[in-house]
Amino acid sequence: MNRVIKKTVSNVFALKIPRKCFCSQAVKVDASTNLLPSNEHEKKPIISQIIPEYDVAIVGGGMVGMALACFLACMPMTKQLSVAIIDSNPALSSGLCIKKEDPPDPRVSTVTPASISFLQEAGAWKYVEQNRHAYFKKMQVWDYTGFGYARYDAGDVNKDFLGCVAENKVLHSSLLSCIKDSDFKTTFYPSRLTSMTLNTNSMSVVEENTPSKEPSPAQGHASKLELSDGSSIYAKLVVGADGGKSRVRELAGFKTTGWNYSQNAIICTVEHTSANHCAWQRFLPNGPIALLPMGENFSNIVWTMSPTESNDRKSITEEMFLKDVNSALDYGYGPHPTSSSLGARDIFSWLKMDGTLSANEPFEIPPKAIRLASERMVFPLSLRHANSYATKRVVLIGDAAHTIHPLAGQGVNLGFGDAYSLSRVIAEGIALGSDIGEVNLLKKYEQERKPANVTMMAILDGFQKAYSIDFGPFNFLRGAAFRGANFVSPLKRSIISYASGERKLPIFF
Ligand SMILES: Cc1cc2nc3c(=O)[nH]c(=O)nc-3n(C[C@H](O)[C@H](O)[C@H](O)COP(=O)(O)OP(=O)(O)OC[C@H]3O[C@@H](n4cnc5c(N)ncnc54)[C@H](O)[C@@H]3O)c2cc1C
């Protein structure tokens, strides 16, 4: 009988079938709606009353939700878990194939060395390397006042690179390929979470593994999730990886703190005459502009500005837009800084113990953009942080827990850190025979990630505010800070190590 039921729920979209399903007389559901695209389920008759149950339901199969699935797939303790991933993004069910020759996407992420090592450990990074990506060894940061600049080189911290830029679609499809190529039991639901009934009763994994104590929904140790296509599932642990407007966060009643910046980011891909190998960021009066290498002759632009400016710049001609970009990365708004600005060497010479490689590098002008290679997209920017990340049976990761300003390219990296930490906490819980939805276990994840995320958010918010002030003496101080970052070696090494995700707190000396 059990075999018949399992066969019934075999999913054309499922990579693997769920480990077990529970029949419930109390809850009527059209099983076919679990398994077919939402437009098809309307045509299908009700075939049985089945609600599948999973160990973990990941709501949101974006980069962070998929990273969690990968991390769970690669550990002996967690690879036995049955996992449902709920997301209506067609890329998940179609398994969208990315080709190297595809036109570059405007959405990219700068991935830190710490995130790269997590993804390597999970076996996902090799797929990223098969597609367009760009490791960068050097970075230059400066501002429009001409008072200061800082150059960073991976050699300053004896590393091969500072980070790697990859298109979001490449990261996403690499994580998907990694899961597909594993023998992990994952079922994709091409749908959206609409409501959730939390069940806060406990059950240990030891109990679950005892055949005579086979759990059932009636015993009540799993939460029920209802999806937009009318289907339902049960899960012992619900992970909210559903982005900044998280439905899981809302349904579970997590409060947030935050605000909207009166800024938008305009992003796009541009082409140069030759390859760019450096990450460039210039702070302008209305926000920073970044030019990030993407591989081949492409770079990505992330330009923060007022909403009015972003709307204007989205609609002006390509020629005018490229002129604006090239001016913003060159002489526009103010002069180039020079090595002698502020007499920086004299100011900081007393602190200089051993010089970094990059301290002597002169200021460079970024390569010119000659062509727009993608559409221009505009994103409103905000800061939002969930006051708590975990409650019984529900936990938040990625943008669902924290949304930050993109000026340092850290958002998805914090999310990868969350996913990695949560996967370890789940493994620990299984090893101890605990219920993986137990709040005391999930709070361990929160205790590990919250300080790291809050610190990064505070630093980036401080930067955003510091650059919202255009006032002579303050501009001078900011220039001095750039100079300090360039010439004071321990500070410079600490900044690189913190931005690389290798140090939890920015302790500078
Ligand atoms: C302009 C810009 C530039 C950025 N650059 C960088 C960078 O260089 N480096 C970096 O680290 N970060 C960067 N970020 C941040 C980064 O993009 C985000 O932190 C990251 O995308 C968050 O991933 P996520 O998976 O948590 O959420 P999302 O990417 O938002 O994914 C959430 C997923 O949940 C799904 N979903 C939503 N609601 C539901 C529901 N009810 N049911 C089921 N599924 C649902 C969505 O379809 C989506 O697939 C940037 C952000 C912006 C705006």
Structure explained in plain terms:
This protein is of the alpha+beta class. It has two domains: 251 residues, FAD/NAD(P)-binding domain (3-Layer(bba) Sandwich); 216 residues, D-Amino Acid Oxidase, Chain A, domain 2 (2-Layer Sandwich). Strands 1, 2, 3, 9, 10, 11, 12, 19 and 20 form a nine-stranded mixed sheet that branches. Strands 6, 7, 13, 14, 15, 16, 17, 18 and 21 form a nine-stranded mixed sheet that branches. It has a three-stranded antiparallel sheet with strand order 4-8-5. It is globular. The termini are far apart. The chain binds flavin-adenine dinucleotide (FAD). Flavin-adenine dinucleotide (FAD) binds next to helix 4, strand 4, strand 13 and helix 14. The site of flavin-adenine dinucleotide (FAD) has 31 residues, from helix 4, strand 4, strand 13 and helix 14. One of its GO terms (molecular function) is FAD binding. It is an enzyme of class 1 (oxidoreductase). Its main location: mitochondrion.
